[in-house]
Amino acid sequence: MDALNLPEFDCKLTQIDGKPYVFDLLRRKYVRLTPEEWVRQHVINLLVVHYRYPKALIRSEGGLSLNATQKRTDLLAFSRDGKPYLLVECKASHVDLTQAVFDQATRYNHVHQAPYIVVTNGLTHYCCQVCHQTASVNFLDDFPFYDQ
User: Fold this and answer.
1) Confidence check: pLDDT of 148 > 60
2) Which domain holds residue 95?
């Protein structure tokens, strides 16, 4: 897998039927290792270790209904009172973070209403604070710590 612009960590890798798998800390099982999953696992590690997000309050690959179709949110962190707090859209490192990627994240967040959105391909990361009442978006220099 490609080197990312995220902290390295001791991830557990294995082969199943000749295909690579990585242990997902949130789902507590091995999942197929794809370039996007590689980014997602690094972001999970970043959120848990560096930004103090409780593992129990992060959902990976959570479903949502959008315009009568089923979609999946890459990562969604919740506040302690169970409300969406941070939505993360992960792309593989070779995928450019285009307007279409931001549009996808904002469509998903239209359903969740999280105050923070992150879009990353593991090399470049954008974090935004969203005010849903005024429809304003502020780009941040860093991810929010969970304790804020």
Assistant:
1) no
2) 13-140
148 Cα distance to chain centroid: 19
Per-residue pLDDT, 110? 87
Residue 114 belongs to some domain of the structure: yes
Report the C-alpha gap between 107 and 112 in whole angstroms.
9
Q: Is 80 exposed, middle or buried (0-12, 13-18, 19+ CB in 10 A)?
A: exposed
Sheet holding 125-131, edge to edge: 58-66, 69-78, 84-90, 116-120, 125-131, 136-140
Give me the mean pLDDT over the 96-101 stretch.
95
- Is residue 2 one of the residues assigned to a domain? no
Instruction: Examine residue 147 and state whether it is found in any structural domain, yes or no.
Output: no
Q: Are 116 and 128 in contact (CB under 8 A)?
A: yes
C-alpha to C-alpha distance for 146 and 126, rounded to whole angstroms: 17
Asked if 25 and 49 touch (Cβ cutoff 8 Å), the reply is: no
CATH number at residue 83: 3.90.1570
